[in-house]
Amino acid sequence: MKLQLIDILIMVAYLVSMLLIGVFMRKKASQDKESYLMGGKKLHWFLLGTSDASDMFDISGTMWMVALCFVYGFKSIWIPWLWPVFNQIFNMMFLSKWLRRSNADTGAEWLATRFGVRGEGVKASHNIVVVFALMGCLGFLAYGFVGLGKFLEIFIPWNIVQPYVPFHIAPAYVAHFYGIVFTLFAMFYSILGGMHSIVIGDLVKYIIMTIGCVAIGYIAMTHLQGQKLNLPKGWDSPFFGLNLGLDWRNILPAATKKIEEDQFGLFGIFFMMMCFKGVLASLAGPAPNYDMQKVLSTRSPKDASKMTGFVSIILLPIRYTMVIGLTVLAVLYYNQLDLSISGGGTDFERILPGAINNFLPAGILGIVLTGLLGAFMGTFSGTLNAAQAYIVNDIYLKYINPTAPDKRIIYMNYLVGVVVVAVGVTIGFFAKDVNSILQWIVGALYGGYIAANMLKWYWWRFNASGFFWGMMAGITAALVFPIIFTGLPLYNWPLLFLISVMGCIAGTYAAPPTDMKVLKKFYSTVRPWGFWKPVHEQVIADNPEFVPNKRFKLDMFNVVLGVIAQTALTILPMYLILWMKLPLLVTILLLAAIALILKKTWWDKLED
């Protein structure tokens, strides 16, 4: 066990502080439903943006990214486009303010803005969003739970803990035991303090995480001086052709096997598929999880845009400083790492905890470990808050007890939080690994979400019936496809998308259009661009002074610039740690130029 007393004290101090935050914020959060779930919609965009970035900086995702960086090198910066990470840019440029203009508390409640509260399919469309949101939340809870357990198992060997545990635990479930223990801490402060404690806790965690990441980057640069990395040709370049072009066979055969298992060898095709899916997914807007809840919690539509833009700036350079730093240490001292798994084989997801445990000095180890522990707790608590919002706001208050007093609502949030955590942990027991859950969420489940949620913004004729049947077709296909097809879910995504589109169109024309009063209010309040001509004509007839949204070309121009800048922010610390001077200079100049342009084309034009 490499942990020293100072490391353990830092971890304990952090855990105690999180519990105290939950206790201190309990009174403020319990004022009413909106205060508990949304921070009263009074929190500054800076705080919400930091919280959102912290929630995205999770252990499981970072373990995955370090494994990818080790095997794929600089080309690994493209693989998170599976989410896609650039959806934040679409949100930043226009979708966050469109969403916030509804003034809703959840994505399901937002549907009333678009489809109204009466009519065929309205209730069904509301229910299907709640089901989807809960499936996604439970999947992410299981994803975080599995990653945390694998992470802690390396730092805290079971043979040291076992004498103090009054029951026997099989070796296969040690990681789950650790996951449960620290999940209880996250559950306590997030359930007690609601959004207030989550945001404050995330701010503390982000500060700790930043210190740890910078320290890792510095340590990696120090160890790299005078050393030569034994890597395949092209590893330090983000560019690629049809094939990946990385030959690990004579260096590390296990890496070759990893590429084959991931099915990323034909990288050009994989990249095009990611872009195709990613653009459509981004046009669908934020998914109903903690990201959407943070957008809806902002003070205004303008703040919503600022918040989502801020996330990429403060998240990516810091996170990838850690990713490339740990990768460099792992490449330099690979033989000192134990990446083997029972039954044979290599688990590259163990690089992150292994490198941290072996190469960081006391104190820094405690800071990094605490930051990553906080990363899990932040992601977990944000996801839990989103699940509570959907169950309490969109099930309990809508169907069971619409007139419930504030005190009853708060207690229901407590109860729902405990139940959701229990179910998420149970799902985690049956998951194979972090990557298997991740691929199902981003490749399958979210694939079924895209069509219906894209059409709702841009096509006036699309109605609640089309939304329900599109979502139902997509989710059903997402659940069935893993049984029918093997391999990467991304490659089956076009078929899944086609099925969902067919459900959208069939459902839309099987029912009458949405009431024109609802459509006019939506169009004039949210002000989207797209195929809204019949509604636009009616709005203009009522209000000749109405100014339509003609920013499609400008928004798309800003999106292209934003995606380039986001990619540059990702690769910047990689060039810095490896001290690749010319690419580093070019990247800095590119970022400066884009910042100046976006100041004029986006920031100066922000409006509520």
What can you see in these coordinates?
The chain is mainly alpha-helical and 608 residues long. Helix content is 72%, strand content 0%. The protein has 24 helices and no strands. 54% of the residues are buried.
Mean pLDDT: 87
Q: Low-confidence spans: pLDDT under 50, at least 5 residues?
A: none
Rg over alpha carbons: 24 Å
**What is the helical fraction, as a range of percent?**
over 70%
Describe the structure in brief.
The protein has 24 helices and no strands. It is an all-alpha fold.
List the helices and strands and how they pair.
Blueprint: H1 5-29, H2 33-38, H3 45-56, H4 59-72, H5 87-100, H6 107-115, H7 122-155, H8 158-161, H9 174-224, H10 253-262, H11 267-283, H12 290-296, H13 301-332, H14 351-359, H15 364-400, H16 406-429, H17 434-445, H18 450-458, H19 464-484, H20 489-509, H21 516-526, H22 533-542, H23 552-577, H24 581-601
Helix pairs in contact: 1-9, 1-15, 3-9, 3-12, 3-13, 3-15, 4-7, 4-13, 5-11, 5-13, 5-23, 6-7, 7-9, 7-14, 7-15, 7-16, 7-17, 7-19, 9-13, 9-15, 9-16, 11-18, 11-20, 13-14, 13-23, 15-16, 17-20, 18-19, 18-20, 19-20, 21-22, 23-24
